[in-house]
Design brief:
Layout (H helix, E strand, L loop, with lengths): L17 H7 L15 H6 L6 H29 L3 H14 L3 H21 L3 H11 L8 H11 L3 H23 L4 H10 L1 H11 L12 H9 L11
Helix pairs in contact: 3-4, 3-7, 3-8, 3-9, 3-10, 5-6, 5-7, 8-9, 8-10
Amino acid sequence: MAGTPVAGAPAQAPPSYALALAQLCDSALPTGAFSHSFGLERHLARGLVHDEASFTDWLVQFIRIQLCHSDGFAIRLVVEAADAAELYRVDRMLAAATLPRQVRRAAATMGARMLQIAATVCPGPELDGYAAQVAAGHCAGHPAVPFAIVGRSLGVPLPELLAGYLFATVTQLTQNAIRGIPIGQNAGQRVLRAVHPEVAGAVMRIQTLAPEDFGVSAPGLEIAQMQHERQRARMFMS
C-alpha cells in the first residue's frame, strides 16, 4: 500500500532546518501580527470587503502586488546579498518603499519581535550585526529581514523559505479577517486553500523579478492604509 513504511528501511530525519522554519512560520508566533490588518480594516469600513468571497479577492491582490514585491522580494535579496552592507541596504529600501506611516511603524514593531525570536531560534553573527544596526538607528527593522537571515544561515532553499513566509503572512491576515469581518473558522480554511496557487505563483514570480520591480504597490491599497490612521473606530492598529 502506498505510504506504508517498508520493513527494514533506514529511518530518515527531517532536513536540519525544518523545525526552525516551522517555528518561525507558526501563526502563533508572537510578533504582534494579530493587531494589524494592513489596510483591510479600511476596506471593511467602506463595505468593499464584507464576506468570504470579497476577502479572498482582497487577499489575492495583496499577495500578487504588495506582498510579492516588498517582503517576498526583500527575502530573495537578503539571501542573495554578497555582504552585510547589501543586506542593510535591503532594510532601508523596504522602509523607503513603505509610504503609509502606520505600516512603517507596524513593520518596525513586528520586525523587532521577529529579530528577538530569530535570535532565540538561530543565533549567529549576521543576525547580531543586523540587530546592532537596528539598535543604532541605521536600519529600520522589518520582519522579512531577520527571517531571511535565519533562512540563509540554515540553508533553507529559497522557494521553501518564500513559501513559508508568504503563507504565514496570509494565515495571519486570514485570522484577522475571521475576527474583523467576521467569517467563521471553516471559511478561513477555505480561503487559505483557495490561495494556495496564488502563494505558489508568487514564489515563482519573486525569483524572476528585476531590481526596478522592488516596492511595486497598489495605489488603492496604500491610500486605504493611509486613511486607516484617521478612521474613527478601529479594531486593528494598521
